[in-house]
């Protein structure tokens, strides 16, 4: 089989960085009041800035697909005509602009210069970007494609705005109940960010400059054991099952904010770290790899709260990672879901720090129903 190399990386973020003190200027005040949970969540996640694809006045500036297309075009900024050589576009997101058509073909619609090519759209949440990369990786390994682009993007911000919760709040007021949205809905408003990243994957490394050889990509799901933890377009029932938006009336959808993103915070804290990172030891053993081989550890985390939790589990499993090997940009970029790992790789790749032979381990947990993806790459 051919080897597969990431030869170029790019990212796109919309507009200006939004600081913590400006967040509600963009997101709005629910029922005219500042959030009770905002300070607590920000103190734990330690995010300092993030990006939104709309203005302070609430005017959209980019769609999800458009941001992804701009990241793809950036891969070919030095030679725009080369984009015509792409023969695969593989794109992941958890916040598509529509249910159908697929996210990937909508991105392709912004890239008419590519001509007619294969397009695939892995669904999921944070792991969707890694699934997109694995499809590109496998296509190059099998020598089925020559120039594959993997991309990941998110546009969470419209689902975080206060007007998405207004009908629910008014319903609570009518029922003479506490007019605050529940913590499972408010929690993610202070963590999520918009943006996109893209990789060019080829069968040969760059003739000059660094490339990243993809040694392996592996993953696992625990949905057979655990109920949903993060969800959208559904309501969680008392027995832990999800009731689809399709089974609610339009009035119920508004009253329950069914299309807001929700997080079962208690379940998240109990399960997200141990399930995946206990399994990492098994994956490393199966691949004949050890943490001693790793020079950079890039964990996708939604909050710095989980940093010490991951460290503890790695130590318990006999695969500790010294802190000087950790690399993340959560504080400056926010949680960009499926695109976060792309943005971390882009920042490290363009930092000038990498040396030939160094190994990079990517770790992407997904809390939606507890899925995990891991990838080992070598700088060549």
TrEMBL record:
Organism domain of life: Bacteria
UniProt keyword NADP, yes or no: no
GO biological process: secondary metabolite biosynthetic process
Chain ranges of the Beta-ketoacyl-[acyl-carrier-protein] synthase III C-terminal domain: 284-363
SUPFAM superfamilies per record: Thiolase-like
UniProt keyword terms in alphabetical order: Acyltransferase, Transferase
GO molecular function: acyltransferase activity
Protein name from the UniProt record: StlD/DarB family beta-ketosynthase
Organism: Dyadobacter psychrotolerans
